[in-house]
Design a protein that fits this description.
The chain is mainly β and 178 residues long. It has one domain: Lipocalin. Helices cover 4% and strands 56% of the residues. An 8-stranded antiparallel beta barrel has the order 1-4-5-7-8-9-10-11. A hairpin with a 4-residue loop joins β7 and β8. The longest helix has 8 residues. The chain is elongated and about 55 Å long. The protein starts with 5 loop residues before the first strand and ends with a strand. The relative contact order is 0.23.
Length: 178
Amino acid sequence: MALQSGNYVLDAQHSTVGFTVRHAMITKVHGQFTQFESVINFDADKPENSTAKATIQANSINTNNEERDNHLRSKAFFGTDENPTFEFVSTAIELQSEEKATVTGDLTINGITKPVTLDVDIFGSAEDPWGQTRVGFEAATKIDRTDFGIDYNAPIKTGGLLLGNEISLQIDGSAVKQ
């Protein structure tokens, strides 16, 4: 089914917002945010007029390690008491094909806003068993955490630093037409 114009809301029960960061120079830590919302206004006739906005609750971070999650909520990382949400607002959407798009926008973390571009794979749309039109997609980008004031690090005995600066962000999305 071709993508239809309209407003789409990200289904939090069937979507994930995750990240990956290099840890101790030899491995990666994966995590996700469990509370988020996003609205996509898609214009099938003029995709460049489409918009997207997302809000992530920073406190909802989950790396399967409560001690680490609490450290990530602290001022050393996200300072979630002062900055409870991350925000993304699109500034340009370019549909390259029915399966590929780029979404450029402003990402705000820790009160610092920087431009980012997400590469999007569109899996198509379908009507689910309850009569709802859904669009499935994956979106990914990489950011430098220090650009957002996240400077915490520690040296490790074997050389190097505990954390990499590059963060991979991944969204596996199922959006429902309203």
